[in-house]
Known about the structure:
Elements: E1 4-9, H1 13-30, H2 36-54, H3 59-95, E2 104-109, E3 112-116, E4 121-125, E5 131-134, E6 138-142, E7 148-152, H4 159-173, E8 178-181
Parallel strand pairs: 5-8
Antiparallel strand pairs: 1-2, 2-3, 3-4, 5-6, 6-7
Amino acid sequence: MPDRLEFRFLWNAAEHRRLFKAVRRVVWRRAWYRRLLPVGVVFIVVAEAAALAASPVPLSRVASGSLPYVVLIAFWFVLIRWGFPYLSARAYARDHQRCIPHDQVRVVTADGVEAHCVTTNLKIQWSGITRVIETPEFFLMFTGPACAFALPKRAVPDADSLRAVRGLFGRVLGSGAELLAT
């Protein structure tokens, strides 16, 4: 493997939204609170069914009284699923206007990973990366529980360099970190 692998790509909003969803999916799988969501939904359904069965009020009044809450819950699901990725891409585009028209450069070395654009240089040492996860579109290098540094697979020109990067991840991160493919 060469001492330095450099990958270039142009940023786009659609890919940023997919990146946001990929990170959220990985984080959500590991989160302990994700197990509470089905319990909460079942609790709400059972409580609503019990209230309807015990209520002397006509069903139409109970349903119309519950409608705002159902709409609010649906709004939150829509916002979480599509709104947050859109807002994240929009904020990134606003905050990085000078970088976006130029190549985004990712460099993988034996010391760590780097990101370069016309205004910014960032270097993350391998000791700061806790896990690397490969998704169908990205390599996600996590520096915290929900914070990931991404390398889009479309920027990797051939399978040999992709395998070299995977080998470097496994060698450098060692047994203390996770190396997963999803």
